[in-house]
Structures are given as structure tokens and as C-alpha cells.
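INFO batch 0412 | record 1 of 1 | parsing
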Amino acid sequence: MLLALDIGNTEATVAVYRGDDLVAMGRLTTNAPRTPDEWAAATAALLAQHEVPARAIRACALASVAPPVTHDLMEGLRLLTGVEVLAIDAGSPLPVVLDVDEPKAVGADRIVNALSASLTYRADTVVVDFGTATTFDCVTRDGRFLGGAIMPGIRTSAEYLTRKTAKLPAVDMAAPPRAIGRATVEAIQAGVLFGAADAVDGMIDRVRREWPGGVVPRVVATGGLAAMVAPLSRTIELVDRDLTLRGIRFAARHLGLDW
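INFO prediction complete | emitting C-alpha cells
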């Protein structure tokens, strides 16, 4: 089995593949420090929930945008599974061309998103990834990563709003029935979620106008809040919740891992 991890600044999404089949998925928080032993214990507990023995893991690969936790997490995974952990980054020899001014600065999550989109859809694609940040990853059908955009994530914006204002409460992320909120909670939800959807649509309009060759790229959403935002957007065409993890699996296979 392959253990694949998408490590973000707030959460790590963990997946187990048997061959090419996704058999388990869960999340671990990454915003609190853990020792390697603690990472091993937390991952073991997550695997046990899905009845996956740690020693059934034959390969492990990750894409991380959280350097402070990556080393200890990798060591914890090695202790738990007994296998070396492959970290995917801009230097990995993958079938994606980083056609940007600073290729070494491209985040691992955006690289595997581009790889996954090019191999899954075989079409020019914009991946909108709703995480701690909302990223727009632009990739052509032949695997050329053109760059994109990065804006504050939905939860990030909502938390900053309530933290910096004395009288606005923290709210659950749920789309209200109308844009004109009739209570404070509704007003915050409308501003955050409808505002995010409209911001995505505005960015996609701009990206499509700039796309090379006059091609109209398809728009695929992924990440934790993708399913919530997609129905509010006029440009998101589909939600692919496993796109990033699938990209890690594609990368692991291409880089010679066997499970």
C-alpha cells in the first residue's frame, strides 16, 4: 500500500492507496508542534480507524507546504512504517514543465495539482484549490504549468475578520439563503462565501482572457471547501476532492516507488 500525504499549513490530508485504488482517507492537524514519536502515534491512530496496519505500507510520499513540521513528520512516518519517505518538490523529475519565472519557488501542492490535472483530464485546466490559501493552478493539456494566482483562503479570511473585530462572532461556514443577511451571522456567511465565489469567478474570467492560444480551460475545484463553494460559482465546472492526493500517487509512481 502507498501512504500519500498532502501537508498544508493547517491540516495534512492522509490517503492510503492499494494499487491505484483509494481505500482510506483522513486528516491530521499541522498547526501544533509534534515530535516524530507523536506524529507516528497520530498517524497510527488514523490508520487504525480504517483498519490499515502500519506495516502494510510499502511506500510513502508527500507534498508539503509546511516546512516547520515536515522533517519531524517524515521521521515519524519512517518510524511507523519502516520505509523511507519521498518528499515531492520543484526539483523532482516529473512530467510537468514549470514554465514560470521562479520554478524552484513553486509549492509542492501546486506541482502535484498540475500533474494530476494534466494526467486526469488531458485538457487545459485551472485547478482552484481551497485550502489555507486559495490557489489557482494553470496547466496545459501537455503538462506545462503556466503559473496562477494565490489569495487568502476562506477560513483564513473569516478567522481574521472575527479576530480583528470586537463584535463580530466566529461562524460556521455555511451558505446563507440570501446575500442581504438579516442577522450578523448571515451577513458574515454571505460576505465570506458569496464573496469568495464571486472572487473565484472574477479571477477565472481574467485567467481565461489571458490563456494562450485562445483555448478556454476547464475549471476544477479541490480542497476542503470546494464542495461548498462550487454551487455558488458560475465558473467551477466540477469538484475533484482527491485531485491533489492522486497527483502525489502519480508522482510516486513516476519517481519509481512500488507498492
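INFO post-check: The CA atoms of residues 222 and 242 lie 7 Å apart.
INFO record closed
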